[in-house]
Amino acid sequence: MTHVKNICCIGAGYVGGPTCAVIAYKCPDIKVTIVDVNAIRIAAWNSGRLPIYEPGLDEIVFARRNKNLFFSTEVEKAVNEADLIFVSVNTPTKKTGVGAGYAADLAYVESATRGIADVAKSSKIVVEKSTVPCRTAESMRTILEANSSDDIRFDILSNPEFLAEGTAINDLLYPDRVLIGALQTPEGLNAQKALVEVYAHWVPTERIITTNLWSSELSKLAANALLAQRISSVNALSAICEATGADIDEVAYACGRDARIGPKFLKASVGFGGSCFQKDILNLVYLSEQLNLPEVAAYWKQVVDLNEYQKKRFVSRIIKTLFNTITNKRIALLGFAFKKDTGDTRESAAITLCKNFIQENAKVRIYDPKVSSEQIYMDLSEPGIVDNTEEVKKHITITSSAYEAADNTDAIVIATEWDEFKTLDYEKIYDRMNKPAFIFDGRLILDASKLQNIGFRVHTIGRAAI
Ligand code: NAD
Ligand code: UDX
């Protein structure tokens, strides 16, 4: 059996970086090199300020960097030295061409695979770490096999990543499960064993699931679809709560106490964001359509549609409550990241909220503890959002505290559930706001009756106004 001694990871992003840093941390006998074509990102990984914010990541990276953990732009060298290669590149939704808006763009996976085929001088285990449509491993295998020879063979594994941002290090150190799919051939099973041995350095073997390649690929899309479906289900119920006087937190708690339902992922919100849920469900929708299963496609598509509806509903509630117009009104937007404990803004609900506020000519004052001003301007200037940085700058002010954001505003909107928003001095904030002062809690993190006693008019997702 192969014993892995040298790992290369292609793609130093939110997944490749933390995942392989933890492998290096837990396997001091294995050399791990993370490579990327983005030289700025690699320079940041080699600096004192890592390119992504993730609790616990600095400690892990600083403990192993330049010992058995390396970050480099020398893709060819690292590929050649490795016996196992993770492909952890981005697989965004296609923007143009066949399947635009639904299918995953596999150009980066293909280019990484061709890169391996072009330079490899010895046999390799190639591992799909990126989230990909079912049967992508077949295309990778075809490309690699076309380039293999009598003395070089490539074995493909699927090892999807289940970490969530904000808790990535904990998720990697104590995973619910690790999933490794392989072709059911002697060589495939041998490669699978080699990767099991890597994870077994710290993951109990009963948590390492081995399956065939296609089950592993599909399980990743399925897991994200099922998680997102719970959020859309609870968000659909939140609309009923607002209209009836039921309280979504109470309903979610009562339902979640049923062991068959369970309490997790039932927090109503302004809508899920992040780089994975929407992308992966649309990918599943596309796959279903390709397989001529339109009912299945429509079923999963509804999870994304409901999410869009939830964001729209929240914006409508804000405008209606602010006397049907927000033109020239000042709104404090607290939080821009797609969830707490990350600086990532991909598909953040805050972007949709801002887009709508700007279209209504409101003045938006944004505060987020971990998202940079440049990132906010970049996100809002994207085509299809506001499209024009000058227009964005006319409407947006970025502040360095929640207090500054709230100054002379008509309303506060909570878009991200950062812990610091729970403990702000709301009396001080109230004094600095225009009256009547409104709070719209899109994350159900605030004590509404306490705020009401201060004088705020409080609107919470999933609750009737108080
Ligand atoms: P990312 O965009 O942060 O990182 C991908 C990196 O790959 C980029 O830095 C890019 O420069 C690099 N890259 C692309 N092509 C390359 C090539 N040919 N050679 C070298 N480098 C190359 O993406 P991410 O968030 O880390 O996601 C990676 C994959 O993992 C995606 O398929 C995603 O769906 C999946 N995933 C992401 C998460 C998450 O929380 N972000 C969780 C689970 C799975
Ligand atoms: C998700 C999956 O959880 C993870 O397993 C996968 O590997 C990548 O995609 P991530 O997107 O990083 O992880 O974060 P997650 O915690 O799942 O949150 C996604 C979005 O759903 C966030 O906007 C979050 O605020 C929202 N959410 C989550 C809710 O609105 N309610 C919930 O109960 C849980």
UniProtKB/TrEMBL annotation:
Protein name as annotated: UDP-glucose 6-dehydrogenase
Q: In which pathway does it act?
A: Nucleotide-sugar biosynthesis; UDP-alpha-D-glucuronate biosynthesis; UDP-alpha-D-glucuronate from UDP-alpha-D-glucose: step 1/1
Query: What InterPro entries does this protein map onto?
Result: 6-PGluconate_DH-like_C_sf, NAD(P)-bd_dom_sf, UDP-Glc/GDP-Man, UDP-Glc/GDP-Man_DH_C, UDP-Glc/GDP-Man_DH_C_sf, UDP-Glc/GDP-Man_DH_dimer, UDP-Glc/GDP-Man_DH_N, UDPglc_DH_euk
Binding-site residues for NAD(+), renumbered to this chain: 11-16, 36, 41, 89-93, 130-131, 165, 276-279, 346
The protein's matches in NCBIfam families, at most eight in alphabetical order, are given as: NDP-sugDHase
Keywords from the named record: NAD, Oxidoreductase
BP terms from Gene Ontology: glycosaminoglycan biosynthetic process
Q: Which GO terms describe its molecular function?
A: NAD binding; UDP-glucose 6-dehydrogenase activity
A Pfam family recorded for this sequence? UDPG_MGDP_dh_C
Q: Cite the UDP-glucose/GDP-mannose dehydrogenase C-terminal domain residue spans from the record.
A: 332-448
An example Gene Ontology cellular component term from the record?
Answer: nucleus
The answer on whether this UniProt entry bears the keyword NAD reads yes
**Protein family membership:** Belongs to the UDP-glucose/GDP-mannose dehydrogenase family.
Record field: catalytic activity: UDP-alpha-D-glucose + 2 NAD(+) + H2O = UDP-alpha-D-glucuronate + 2 NADH + 3 H(+)
Q: Where is the active site?
A: 276
**Entry binding sites for substrate:** 161-165, 220-224, 260, 267-273, 338-339, 443
Instruction: List its EC numbers.
Output: 1.1.1.22
Q: Tell me the enzyme class.
A: oxidoreductase
